[in-house]
Design goal:
By secondary structure, the chain is an all-alpha fold. The chain is built from 3 helices and no strands.
């Protein structure tokens, strides 16, 4: 049973929807992007195991909020833990 159906989409059974996505290439895109996420997650996992980085630290700081200030970095890390990100 479906949990929710958007009102502007026709209701389609899961098996025909899957077959349609395989034919049109939609499932290939899902596989591609999921594979990228898994590969980068695996690389991060190995770096964490080797001690090269802290768990959850993906070094993503595009606004350069805490690059050189250790106190700021610690405050932001604590905020990430508090907010469960």
């Amino acid at each position: 049973q479906e949990v929710y159906t958007f009102p502007f989409f026709d209701k389609v059974d899961p098996i025909p929807a899957h077959d349609l996505l395989v034919k049109t290439g939609g499932m290939s895109q899902i596989l591609l992007w999921t594979s990228f996420a898994e590969i980068f997650g695996g690389i991060a996992l190995f770096q964490t195991i080797q001690g090269k980085r802290a768990a959850g630290d993906f070094s993503f700081d595009p606004l350069n909020l805490s690059s050189n200030d250790a106190e700021k970095r610690e405050r932001y890390a604590l905020a990430e833990i508090k907010h469960s990100r």
